[in-house]
Design a protein that fits this description.
This is ABC transporter permease. The protein is mostly helical. It has eleven helices and no strands. It has a single domain, classed as MetI-like fold (Orthogonal Bundle), CATH 1.10.3720. The chain is about 80% helix and about 0% strand.
Length: about 260
Amino acid sequence: MRRYKLDAMGVVLPTVLVCIWFIASASGALPAYKLPSPQRLIMVLIDFATGTLNITPYSGTLLSHLLCSLRRVLSGFTLATLMGISLGFLTGRVSLFQRLVDPFLNMLRAIPGIGWLPVAIVWFGVGEGNTLFLISLAAFFPIYMNTAHGAKEVPVLILRAGRMMGARGLNLFATVIFPAAFPQVAVGLRLGLGVSWAYLVLGEVTGVSMGLGAVMSDGRMLGHVDIVLATMLVIAIMSKATDRLLLYLCKKISPQLRKRREER
């Protein structure tokens, strides 16, 4: 089993930026009310997670807010996955669905996410339904688009070989079409999961009392720039962690992805 290797070059730019940030904060060139120092941010993160310092109103509440946000992201992403993969394979393999559904969905895809917010509030009110709708809608399009492309681009020779081996109908889909298209599906799933974390904030700033987006909204109104930045960092870490987990699961499903990993 190969372990994930950290590329040292990926650390260079963040390190340089943190050093500049530290120097600017220490010299007073960067006011704390605009951007707190790295030391202050670390202390706020520790207090947010453990509640040992009591330096913000959110002391020790990280776990409860994180679990709420994680549940919303996974719920919206799961719904988007079910719909995106189903419609994607239908559109990619059935010409009638491609002509009937694809133009309409591409038209909807052009509408920016913020444009759906007022409509979502009217339809679902302020709260869970609104957040779930925004997350699932945003994640749906990259999953659908990549799945449809992957299903459509399955090589004809592979399909012919499968039919020569006696595969038909669902058996052909399970043994030939799905495995051949899955690398492209995996790309859509990763994009969809990343978008889910981005739209989580859009949904949670509209009135929910728990969640990382709610903390960001409250922190902004109360002037706690430090907790806003701390929450942003938590979201970035969780987005990366869930992406790594998803990639691991995709490689377990697809031999092609495992082979690509071994070739690197």
